[in-house]
Amino acid sequence: MNAPVEENLKPVKCVGMETVVIAPDLTIEHVLQARERINPYIHNTPILTSTYLNEQIGAELFFKCENFQKAGAFKVRGACNSVFGLTDEDTVYGVATHSSGNHALSLSYAAGRRGIPCHVVMPKTAPQAKKDAVLGYGGLITECEPSTSSREAVFAEIQEKTGAEFVHPYNDPRVIAGQATCSAEMLESVEGLDTIVAPIGGGGMISGTCLTVSNQAPQIEVFAAEPLQADDAARSFRSGRIIADDAPVTIADGLKVPLKENTWHFVSHYVADVLTATEEEIIDAMRLTWQRLKIVMEPSCAVPLAVILKNQDVFRGRRIGVVVTGGNVDLDRLPWMK
Amino acid sequence: MNAPVEENLKPVKCVGMETVVIAPDLTIEHVLQARERINPYIHNTPILTSTYLNEQIGAELFFKCENFQKAGAFKVRGACNSVFGLTDEDTVYGVATHSSGNHALSLSYAAGRRGIPCHVVMPKTAPQAKKDAVLGYGGLITECEPSTSSREAVFAEIQEKTGAEFVHPYNDPRVIAGQATCSAEMLESVEGLDTIVAPIGGGGMISGTCLTVSNQAPQIEVFAAEPLQADDAARSFRSGRIIADDAPVTIADGLKVPLKENTWHFVSHYVADVLTATEEEIIDAMRLTWQRLKIVMEPSCAVPLAVILKNQDVFRGRRIGVVVTGGNVDLDRLPWMK
């Protein structure tokens, strides 16, 4: 689909990629730079397959296991690209962000590796496992209410107080270029992919995927998978403009945030479709993955498999890369335990 | 330690390794044959590491993830080596076994791939996930009481009725040679290992590990890890003869069976020590692995990490291969859920 020209894109400070200020200026060169920059701090994660799931669906699925990633999620890619792209001068007051969890702990990890402070605003309702991990990496947490408006208000205070460099969890070209390294690895590991399915919250992973794929393998269709109960990206996609919900409720706690200008650019230009799944479908797919792939992953990661199972007519016969975005789940509160 | 000569070793029918009838006759050639034979039916499983765990313990741990193996456990190696080593004539009545779970479903998988029937005797108390998996692979289940004596009695009936070829879960040189392929892969994947720790139940994995290591890397020390509540191998090791308990109770349901002559040969000649862990230590190590490695694994697989955490003086500074034996766990009955 063709989207209207983004009128609201504002320049973002992008040290280390001086010519880039907005998403449309990102090129494959920025992805290659990001790979080199973050390589010492991340894993090239393994890809797992399941004969059982392939037979059930009639397709070939390749699960890119970012749950095995450093800090437990793909977000460490964008966080490292941002933190290690800063000049020494820019790091004096540390970095700061707001995040439902994985970006918070990824930025804490990256800042810790660079030896600078990291301030994070997290919703009170974030899983305890994620809060503990942030603290474990030395991050400094300030809590907010579980809504976008509260999160942004509390963050503004923190940033003013500390003067820290803001690294947005997804609406930042440095972060998008970092996330793009994940699909770059997939293209090297799996030959002949024709489809990639990834979860969509704010759109950082999907945007990075589109950035890589549109440059390196434009024949691949990119599908975004979203909880029906937080379907702002699906509604945005269909209406041709960003629709933001303030506080959606879904078990997929990583996918509650709305699109922003930089990610909307990629969603509107490159995504084949945004498909949704109910809470029950997400839980069933999560359980199925634990059972069959033997991996611990977050509810958010189950949304791609849920939409594939639900739309088998779309996906049958395809060779599909599935991004398993993270594994930071609260083991005491698994969603199938009553 | 030196053990008494095994006087009770009886010849086992070993088609495909005609000259081998008892464990001491096994050579590295049988391991190489097994690798070639089973290669089309198994995965060379990945090895995962955790910086966090390494720092906690002061050692380097390399987790060989047999929970990602076909049929969800290392036992598929021995099962495939046995089933695909049979002549067509020997397969007429199918194969049969008794097993607490993973050997049952591994043999069902192997038999299914060869297109022959598989009869399995399983304890009533085996996890439902394992029973379902056996049925899913086409295995035919007969239930017994959860004791070694009941299991063997019921099995004798089944074998007489069907005439199927018996593939013992561990006391069979074909099976031991198959399990030995796991450490052969580890030696290729990780340089400079000085230690391997694996769980011990009947001793099939430990025996296979000793077979490979004593031939290919004799400098490596092999430690067996056992639940304190099923510590027959530890007591056997210390007393120099097989001690068998009839029905031990432990959460590590794969490790309840006693040593037999063929595995005793390896345990008594090659194992450095048999270390034990309490139920609580096993559960803590299991939870820690799920949290940090993001993998779904059985309680049995947590015993090695539990003994490493408990004996840090023994393991500090070492480069340790840890065998994660399987991932067939009942997700509705996780041991840390009250």
Question: Can you lay out the helices and strands and say which pair or pack?
Answer:
The structure is a homodimer of 338-residue chains.
Chain A: H1 28-38, E1 47-48, H2 51-57, E2 60-65, H3 75-83, E3 95-98, H4 102-114, E4 118-123, H5 128-136, E5 140-144, H6 148-162, E6 165-166, H7 173-189, E7 195-199, H8 204-216, E8 221-227, H9 232-239, H10 261-270, E9 271-277, H11 279-293, H12 299-310, H13 312-315, E10 319-324
Parallel strand pairs in A: 2-10, 3-4, 3-6, 4-5, 7-8, 7-10, 8-9
Antiparallel strand pairs in A: 1-2
Helix pairs in contact in A: 1-7, 3-4, 3-7, 4-5, 7-8, 8-10, 11-12
3D architecture notes:
With 338 residues, chain A is α/β, with parallel strands linked by helices. Chain A folds into two domains: 23-74 and 172-324, Rossmann fold, CATH 3.40.50; 75-166, Rossmann fold (3-Layer(aba) Sandwich), CATH 3.40.50. Chain A is 42% helix and 15% strand. The first copy, chain A, has a six-stranded mixed β-sheet, with helices on both faces. In chain A, strands 5-4-3-6 form a four-stranded parallel β-sheet, with helices on both faces. In chain A, helix 5 links the parallel strand 4 and strand 5 (140-144). The first copy, chain A, is globular. The A-B interface holds A 46, 48, 51, 65, 67-68, 70, 72, 129, 287, 290-291, 293-297, 327, 331-332, 334, 336-337 and B 46, 48, 51, 65, 67-68, 70, 72, 129, 287, 290-291, 293-297, 327, 331-332, 334, 336-337.
